Amino acid sequence: MNPEERILNEIKNFFSGIFEIGENKKGYRYAEYKKSWLGKLRLSASDADEAKSSRTTKKLQNHLKDKFGDRVRTEAPVAEGMTLRFDTIDSAQEIKIDSSKLQAFDILDLETGTAFEISLSDAFAEFFKDVLKALLDSRVKKLYICMRNHTYKGAGKSGYLRVASSEMVQQYISLARLYKLDILLVDLYPECNK
């Protein structure tokens, strides 16, 4: 087992009790929040997906901090303590980066250089943002993008299925390997694909 798999398994286990299978008018099955989970968040099914996503991600982050301590950094700013990814770049050229003005990784495993991004709403759009963050941060050697299938704006195929089946996404994953970055897509609730 890879060292980061303990964290990945904890993420998957966390989400196993949060979702149930939903189905939209087009017959598309997706991972819907359980009412009991929304109750814990003090939300309802009619609340915005962004609120559900952000509160769920925050609960996950707190859970992982409790479980793994200082090994895990949540809301880790991109490029914090940055070093060059490639030694061939002219290191005499000093570049100052204020990482407080950049976006952050949802979860960063400092021990393995693995970033975990949790994408519970518009996974396709978030994919590109997450890849850019990982490419710009030399600490990150592996990126897990954890998604669910959802009913984003009434799409027939959305979330994990759309991202994983996209030829363009597969090309970006291949291209990232040239930059010494492995990208893995994770379906947080594969039960709705059966």
Poorly predicted regions are: none
* Radius of gyration from the alpha-carbon trace, in angstroms: 17 Å
The number of distinct β-strands equals 7
Tally of structural domains: 1
Q: What portion of residues belong to β-strands? A: 15-25%
Number of helices: 6
Shape: globular
Q: How far apart are the termini? A: 26 Å
The H/E string reads: HEEHHEEEHEHHE
Q: Can you list the strand order of the major beta sheet?
A: 3-4-5-6-7
Helix/sheet category: alpha/beta
Helical percentage = 25-40%
Mean pLDDT: 87
The profile of the biggest β sheet is: 5 strands, mixed
Explained architecture:
The protein has 194 residues and is α/β, with parallel strands linked by helices. The protein has one domain (5-76, 103-193). The chain has six helices and seven strands; from the N terminus they run αββααβββαβααβ. Strand 1 and strand 2 form a beta hairpin. The two termini are 26 Å apart. The model has no long low-confidence stretch (mean pLDDT 87).
Summarize the structure.
With 194 residues, the chain is of the alpha/beta class. It is 36% helix and 21% strand. It is globular, with a radius of gyration of 17 Å.
How are the SSEs ordered, and which strands pair?
Blueprint: H1 5-16, E1 19-23, E2 29-33, H2 35-40, H3 49-68, E3 72-77, E4 104-109, E5 114-119, H4 123-136, E6 142-147, H5 160-164, H6 167-178, E7 182-187
Parallel strand pairs: 5-6, 6-7
Antiparallel strand pairs: 1-2, 3-4, 4-5
Could you list some keywords that capture this structure?
194 residues; globular; two-stranded antiparallel sheet
